[in-house]
């Protein structure tokens, strides 16, 4: 049986991370204030409170809340209350809040389900997509003006579209002092495979927020680098950039040359090429057949739904759907048909799940699923857009900036910036793409490296990316799993 902490999605924070967060919090607080109040709203094992005590903070200034009735006080002199912080109605305000709140989405959390009505009313401004964002939102409300919040949380809020309103709220009510992408395997000892970041905010009235104040943004590092991060991992960026990003995305160590592509004047890819989703069967195991299961190809149609990283450029269909599929939508309520005018047309089909993003040629006569699919106006544009989508630059913009989670939907592709290439550079991309498709048709293990390099260089030049930034993009893409 899982403990209440594990059920809520709460894990013990490693000591080195706690020590850094404690020191970072205290440097923003005046040492002479007698009425200082610091809160850990989800104290758990009390590691943050103990660290503050060891740093010289008096117990009378420390407050610890926890929902679990079995949680013991972290120290007998600390103000400890067994309470649900998200339902806390006391008007008391704090100078600082520190902690590691639970990470549970609304699909995973029984707490969110059981308290849905209350939470929807209380947190409607930001939505109830995950527990940790509710703790940050409530934490900001419980801070005094000028108060500091530092929390280590799941990093999905940085770019996922569901957290757009949350990001906007933070920008409108705080000055972001620092965001650090925490070590990749920080919670592996607790059997949690989750990417996290350390967020430090200063609460300010909206009218007093300095939009041009400089945020300290630090790329993925290891625990031993907290106090002295690698130079190339540090970026100082004015907060106004986050407001100008699509969906208020929080970009961490994205070079200004790439950030500026998303700022005005900005032409989204969705404005120049049709990007659509197709059939959602509601039950792929029932409606789709793998290639080995199909005996009469006259009765079955190719169905492209989510190619893998090795399927870039071209791959034989892995799934088939029966030619009588139009009847299914009238019989099965979960069988959804979208954008049928694009069915059977030549186009581009994209992956949607996984760390690696890839795009492949979509042959005429095929159907496609809820992954993103593009339908350019002519074949030359088809080959150009296919090359563009498989370029390192686009892979970087998708996975580093637009969405750090493992699902790339049509909505994210539509937000990619588009710059019309010169005829000569477009020709390089088109010819490389044609050669790559033909090579993969003949041999799925075809060596793509030389053509890929030529194509990548043409795309870099089209987008005006300088050599130093090209090197940054290549380093990131070389090991996506570790760098995201």
From TrEMBL:
By its UniProt entry, which Gene3D superfamilies does this protein fall under? Vaccinia Virus protein VP39 (3.40.50.150)
The record, for InterPro entries, names: DNA_methylase_N6_adenine_CS (IPR002052), MethylTrfase_TaqI-like_dom (IPR011639), N4_N6_ade-DNA_methylase (IPR050953), SAM-dependent_MTases_sf (IPR029063)
Q: Does the keyword Methyltransferase apply?
A: yes
Annotated GO biological processes are: DNA modification; methylation
Residues in Type II methyltransferase M.TaqI-like domain copies: 82-180
Q: What UniProt keywords are attached to this protein's entry?
A: Methyltransferase, S-adenosyl-L-methionine, Transferase
Q: Which GO terms describe its molecular function?
A: nucleic acid binding; site-specific DNA-methyltransferase (adenine-specific) activity
Q: Which CDD domains match?
A: AdoMet_MTases
The entry assigns this protein to a family as follows: Belongs to the N(4)/N(6)-methyltransferase family.
Name of the featured protein = site-specific DNA-methyltransferase (adenine-specific)
Q: What is the lineage of its organism?
A: Bacteria, Bacillati, Bacillota, Bacilli, Bacillales
